[in-house]
Amino acid sequence: MTTATVTGKPEEPVVATKNYLTEGGVTLRSWLLTRDHKRIAILYTLSITFFFFVGGAAATLIRLNLVTPPGIFTPDIYNRLFTLHGVIMVWFFLIPSIPNTMGNFLIPLMIGAKDLAFPRLNLLSWYLYVGAGFLALFAILIGGVDTGWTFYTPFSSLYSNGYVVLALAAVLAVGFSSILTGLNFIVTTHRMRAPGMTWYRLPVFVWSNYATSVIMVLATPVLAITLILVAAERLLKVGIFDPALGGDPLLFQHLFWFYSHPAVYIMILPGFGVISEIVPCFARKPLFGYKFVVWSSIAISVIGFFVWAHHMFVAGISLYAGLVFSLLSYVIAVPSAIKVFNWTATLHKGWISFDAPMLYALGFIGLFTIGGLTGLFVANLAFDVHVTDTYFVVAHFHYIMVGGMVSAYFGGLHYWWPKVTGRLYPEWWARIAALLIFFGFNLTFFPQFILGYLGMERRYYSYPPEFQAWNIFSSAGASVLAVGYALPFFYLGWSLFRGKRAGANPWAATGLEWQTPSPPPTHNFDRTPTVTRPPYQYRPEPEPQDV
Amino acid sequence: MSDAAPASQSAPQPEPQYATVEQQAEAASFGMWVFLATEVLFFGGMLLAYTWLRANHPDGVAEAGRHTTVVIGSVNTLVLLTSSFTMAWAVHAAEHGRQKALTRLLSATALLGLLFLGLKGYEYHGEWTEHLVPGLNFHQDGPHARTIELFYFLYFLLTGLHGIHVTIGIVLIALLAVRARRGAFSARYYTPVEVTGLYWHFVDIVWIFLYPLIYLVGRSGP
Amino acid sequence: MTTRTTGLPRSYLFTWAALVGLLAATMALAYVPMPGPLNLVLALGISAVKALLVLALFMKLFRAPALTRAAAAAGLFWLAVLFALSATDYLTRKVEPAGDLSAPTGREYQQGDR
Ligand SMILES: [Cu+2]
């Protein structure tokens, strides 16, 4: 498909006895010192899954507390819980989720390379991530942080009684991890492509990760310096963000959101990439408007830097700045909408099969659209004044981050599971999980739009009794969601040992990664492939071939 | 970036993920440039803070600038500019396979870096005795005292982070000097020298901008 | 470009001399009273020239592949975005009087400074 002339036709269902899991030894040492991008991707997947459950546990406790108005936790503990949830989910799950697991595994495979450009940096990046993760957990265990994931000054620098500096150090370290990953991806995409793999033959997944990497490399350093300024201010009790000294707390917010708004696109762009792989495959059609999809990714990564102060409309920025940033925030909706149109057009008259990855992809398109459209609501100055710091905003970004990104993560996980492990997952269980996640998600977060519109403030441990009914819906949805997220853990684990052998290409998909055995050999291809055709050359076929 | 193979004199081999040594060298150099773009924004964030301070408290910043030791700052600028020159020369020597010159020039660069750090440390010591260290022993009077404190807050962070970069550079260059002495580089393989050189020049450029912002601001005033 | 005896490319020597000359110039100019922020603007202009010399000649940026120049340009472009879009706020923000608050608001110091 993509590739056509791949040398060395994959010998079908025969299991490759020599693959990256067995070659180079199976000792712990061989894993901890590995430079193979695929093994590092596995290390990342394991650690990211761990942090996903840590952050998820905090979310569960938050929803438990909000079932009854006074709640079961003290305000102080509640503050620490939502900070824990935010910090872990943003920096230890969402930011690295798709790039560091699937991106790491697939980018070299998709471009026909043997590895990333800098394997040692790749491993260093994982160690930084794990070190930072343990630092964050340590800060939580000895008492926690109560600032929220945004670390707003002067609360974080002067008044908070949590372990703010430790948490800042953890985020700083994980930031460097993400800079190294971004740098590695950029150089790899430019310099390691196989012969014939021109830019317009790259799968959209690679383009998306490239666009993501640009943001990682150019936005994260600003976060790093901002956190250093906050930490110094907290340690010295003097700082540029302190209004009592003539400093400006809004300067912190400018610097913080200069990173953190583009960071939203670090979280969602790789998801766009995954969906752009899944939809053509399960609709058996070429991706509609490939170049538009590609360039809208690039546009998002650039324009994403121009909108940050929409987080500060009521924080005290000038009205003129508010107007400018509101307008620019509308502009960024255009490339996102282009993508949704292109996926929908790809589905049009497609030969659609509803396997689990496709269910996740369809869920993504729907939920992302709701999240994106409500994003336009809050980009509107006047409306934003009404809903700032309410559950409306919480619902909006969870539709993007959880409904969108986490769906894409699970979709990609199922789609490439056969490639990574060499085994098929149990399809029916996977479909049940996908549906549970979709319905659980909507039940959890749709009520929050209503709650926010009615005026329920976010980040409070309690609320007026008239909001209880919607909160009970939300918490009930969270329990469904929790079951949905726990299921894959079991059936995917089961499939590792009992799953059917997958063969090289169980989905009859195009793309170089499907041309090599599953699991792939250590250096990915026996001989470097030569690419002669654009991606997504799907034609309607009755069924993916049986394996 | 420094993911480059230690090559034997005659026929350098690329690391397994690369097809050729040239591809490896290009990747290393491009990787360093991407890293430097990161660094621009790293220092840039703090320069925004400085700009804010200068724009909102110009008189205070001017007075604070007059507290700095312009002689040391200027000599240090000269030292770093010169070290950039020796570094560029070192890369040139490596390019032409002159091992001895390379070793000497790298050593000179590292020594100039050390001189810079030494002078910087002496300057810090002076600031400590003048009670200019915010949060630890700051004590100034006058209407601009608080702005001076904020200026010195940024001053110590900026020069401190720059100093860390200088220190890392010195270590890298010293290691290169040792490897050069052992004959690790040749006209065909000197990527680490080139890439480290880029880093060192960048550290110099950062200082080129810090110099007027710290030492020259307010000099024309009373 | 290279003299046989020293192995030192002349262009490097000239670059170094130019850098030192500019350093002397910027130092001298800093002591000349000028209106407003002109001193600083001028000094930063000279810094930009110095940086350009280092980039162009020591780092060989202008002879580098287009990709490399793009990486360098990206860093500067995004830095410009940070400054320019922050300026939309800072150049147009009006600090309202805090009124009769006893706690320090920041405003009194600002006034004291000017
Ligand atoms: Cu935003």
Describe, in plain words, how this protein is organized in 3D.
The complex is a heterotrimer of chains A (547), B (222) and C (114). By secondary structure, chain A is mostly helical. Chain A has helices spanning 28-32, 37-65, 75-111, 119-141, 155-159, 164-191, 204-236, 249-283, 290-303, 319-347, 356-379, 381-387, 391-421, 427-454, 468-498. Chain B is elongated and about 70 Å long. Chain B has a single domain (46-216), classed as Cytochrome c oxidase, subunit III, four-helix bundle (Four Helix Bundle (Hemerythrin (Met), subunit A)), CATH 1.20.120.80. With 222 residues, chain B is mostly helical. Chain B has helices spanning 21-56, 58-67, 70-95, 99-129, 145-181, 191-216. Chain C folds into two domains: 9-59; 65-93. Chain C has helices at residues 10-30, 38-58, 66-90, 107-113. In chain C, helix 1 packs antiparallel against helix 2. Chain C is flat. The N and C termini of chain C lie far apart (54 Å). At the B-C interface, helix 1, helix 2, helix 3 and helix 6 of B face helix 1, helix 2, helix 3 and helix 4 of C. Copper (II) ion binds at residues 261, 264, 310-311 of chain A. Chain C: It comes from Azospirillum melinis.
Task: Chart the SSEs and their pairings.
The complex is a heterotrimer of chains A (547), B (222) and C (114).
Chain A: H1 28-32, H2 37-65, H3 75-111, H4 119-141, H5 155-159, H6 164-191, H7 204-236, H8 249-283, H9 290-303, H10 319-347, H11 356-379, H12 381-387, H13 391-421, H14 427-454, H15 468-498
Chain B: H1 21-56, H2 58-67, H3 70-95, H4 99-129, H5 145-181, H6 191-216
Chain C: H1 10-30, H2 38-58, H3 66-90, H4 107-113
Helix pairs in contact in C: 1-2
Bound molecules: copper (II) ion (CU).
Short account of what is shown:
Chain B is built from 6 helices and no strands. By secondary structure, chain B is an all-alpha fold. Chain B has a single domain, classed as Four Helix Bundle (Hemerythrin (Met), subunit A) (Up-down Bundle), CATH 1.20.120.80.
